[in-house]
Structures are given as C-alpha cells and as structure tokens.
Design brief:
alpha+beta
Length: 135
C-alpha cells in the first residue's frame, strides 16, 4: 500500500501548516480562553475565569463527577486550550472547538438524571449509575 504525501514530512511548509493551527502566543491562547468564557456565558453556564484558567464547576464529565471542568492555557508552546475533565486532558486550538467538546455536557446538565433523581442543573449523586437507555 502506498501513501501520497502533499508535502514531505518535516518540510518547512508542513511544519508551518501544523504550527499555524495552534495559537501563536500565550496571549492568543488567553484570548481564546476569554472567548470560551463568553460562549459559556451565552449558553447560561457559570464559569469562573482566573489567570490562565477557566473553572466550570457546574459541568460534570459524567455521573459522580463532583470536581467540575477546568480549561487551562500554557505559557509554553504548544499554546492551546486544555480541557481537563475526569482526569483526561484534551487540547483544543480554538474556543469554538473547546465549546463543541463541552456542548454535550451542557446539554446533559440541562436534563434531570434518571439514575439518581438529581434535578436538571444539579450534579449527580456520587456513585450514580444512570439508566443506560438515557444515553
């Protein structure tokens, strides 16, 4: 099987294309973080911004998650928005991408839980195992 490459691996063109997808500076990543805070506010999600971090305690990564979601940037390359949820770190290049990643959690927070009976917008009880038919 052969693969067709449009640019040789490691070429200047390929490296520039890959690097351009990420925010170029820490300030650009902070601007994306601020934009994500705006998107969350528009979606009626409470977020607490601080230097280089956005805490979203009202969103849970899954049943029993009481830590909430965090989004961080870094001062060292590669600059990105790192979504931290349930011990997983997921990098995103833009606020829109991070928001798309969080959107299913936002929708889930708006529904009550059939597993433990938690009301919409309230976190599930620890150890909650929701009804699999609600996925």
């Amino acid at each position: 099987m052969s693969f067709s490459l449009t640019q040789p691996a490691g070429s200047e063109t390929q490296t520039a294309a890959a690097a351009s997808a990420w925010p170029a500076t820490a300030a650009a990543a902070d601007a994306e973080l601020a934009h994500l805070a705006e998107l969350l506010t528009e979606a009626d999600v409470t977020a607490f911004p601080a230097a280089g971090i956005l805490a979203v305690p009202g969103l849970a990564a899954g049943p029993g998650d009481t830590a909430g979601i965090r989004v961080r940037t870094t001062s060292n390359p590669p600059h990105a928005l790192y979504v931290i949820a349930a011990g997983r770190l997921t990098p995103h290049t833009t606020a829109d991408s991070a928001f798309a990643h969080l959107h299913p959690l936002i929708e889930a927070a708006a529904r009550p839980c059939d597993g433990c009976g938690a009301e919409a917008g309230k976190p599930c009880n620890p150890g909650c195992l929701p009804d699999p038919t609600t996925y």
